[in-house]
Each structure stands twice: as structure tokens, then as C-alpha cells.
Amino acid sequence: MKKFLAIICAALLMTGCGEVKEVQADVLPPPPDPIEETLKAMTLEEKVGQMIMIGVYGTSVNDDIFYLLNRIHFGGLILFDRNLESVAQTKKLVDDISFAANQKAPLFVAIDEEGGRVARGRHMFEVAPSQEEIGLSGQPSNATYWARHNAKILRSIGVNLNFAPVADVGSKDTRSFGDNAQTVANFVDAAAQGYEAENFFYTLKHFPGIGKSKIDPHKAVSEIEDDKATLAAEDFLPFAKIIRGHDNSKFMIMVGHLKYTALDPANSASLSPAVMTGLLRNEMGYSGVVVTDDLEMGAIKNNVELASLGVKMIQAGGDIALVCHNYDSQQIVYDGIINAVKRGEISMARIDESVRRILKMKAHL
Question: Against a cut of 0.85, is the pTM above it?
């Protein structure tokens, strides 16, 4: 060993005409990225499962839920009143499903708790006023207060994601903060600040804005014929304010099923590359998770084959397919995506792109 060190020292002295050169320490490689490590450890089936959010039936874990966990590997769960008996019971349901899932990433557990007429668990906790009522108060701080309230009560039952606030302008069903785009943007921004103060995930819906709809999308498709400049000035504004001013990895954007003829006359927004990739991703710069409205709504299911809905959603730029009610529908959407990947219609790189966004958001959990 001494002879070896002497040779090394002599060589160093000879280097550079007798000058002793400083020996650079080896640069350690950067630590592995936990998101990339998780992604590499996932199978195709597990990755596609992350891109499916489903609803289940029952107030405790049952054979159907166990089957779906193993069959679909779903990465997200949405709760309805059919799942809610009490705070303790719901928390146990969520904990038991999360434990049984045994996944490489935690579950998104979502609910629609907008306030007013769209609220779950009325028998369990105080429901917020409608967004219309909050907007009429003229005080954006009220939106912050009720967002923090929602975050606290939802966390108590194991929920980590609210499908609220509604960012639509001028909805006629009490679900909008108002009919002025800047007012709505200010109230949505205040609500976002409330959720973020509680470290709670929220969702802006229904991009690119369904306030002008005259038909209930649960029943049929509606077409919005305004030109793009009008849509940008009125409907896009609340979404744009949050995208520019907040960490995009801490909230989702839900895309609706309406058609916007100035953007894409052929496809509903939830299946439109022009809307989800061209507008939302490229023009508006949104880098977070995009979730569809329920794919079982009449506006979408009645016009497109169920097996291709998830495929078209992904090809258009979406990340999570929401399938709320029918177990057969959930499996058909999931299988449609798996088969499309195997046929080469969707690349593994495209799947990884969405799962990477999902895992980045879940890392905050």
C-alpha cells in the first residue's frame, strides 16, 4: 500500500511541470427522484389504475370493492352520500380501502362539497352556503373562510381532494360566485387560498367554463357558440388567474363535456386535444392534473362508445377519467385504455406523462 501511495504522489508531483495539482473528490450522483423511482416500479396495469377515479357502493369494505382494487388498481376514489353514515364510519371506510389498496402511491379520496345544493354529508356536518350566496356577500374573504371550513371537515372523514370551487361564470343554478368574470376570479382565488392554507387539494371546474350552457350535461351535450375572444374574456379568466398565481401541482382542473364550436366543433371539451392540450396546456400553461367530469353523463356517454372514452381522453391530454357509478363502466373504461396501449394507440411515454403529474401531486400527501 505504501509503495502504491508513493507512486501516486510521484505522479502528481510530475504533473504540470512539478506543480502539485489538487485532487478533485468524486462528485456524488444526485439522489434518485422518488417520483421516477415509483414510476419505474409500476406495471402498466398499476399506471393505468392511477388514471382512473371511481365511485363505490356501501359503507364498509365489501367483496366488490376488494375486486375493483385488484381488477382496476384504481388510484382515486370519489365518495357520495351512499357511502356516508357518520364521520367515524366514513373515516374507517376510507382507511380500510386505503389499507386494502396497498399501492405504491396514496389514493386520491374526493368528494363534491361545493356548498348550497351540491354538498354531501348534510346530516354529518355544517354545509357551506352556495357559491352564489358567498359571491353576493361581496367579500372574497368569505370564500376563504368556507374553503378552510370544507377542508377541515373533509379531512376528518379521510377526504384529501374537494371537487370545488366552481370557476364557471354566470351559472343559473346557484353554483357560481357571480356573472362577472373578474368577480368570479377573485372569489375563486380567495377559495384557493383557503384550501392551500389548510394544505388541502381542490379542483377548478368545469373548464373551459359551462356558465353559458342551456342544457344539463348529465342529460345531453350543449354547444357554446361564442368566439374565442369572448370565451377568453369571460369564461377562461377565473381558471387563468389560478393557473398563473398558484402552484399547479396542488390543485386539479376538471374539464366538462360541453362543445365549444370556436375551439373544437367536433369534440366535447373532455375529449378535445384543442381544448386540453392546445388551450389548457400550451396556451394557458397549466402543468397540473386534468380530470374529466363523470364519463357516465349523458352528454358524453350517449355520443361516444364507452370503451373508447378513456382512450380519447388521454389522447386529448387528460390525466384522470372519472367514472362514478357503474362497476361495469369502470372496467370497460380501464380495459379500453390497457388495450389501446397494447395496440400502440397510446404510447407508454404518454401514460408516464400523466402518471408523473399524478405522482407529483400525491407527493404533497
Answer: yes
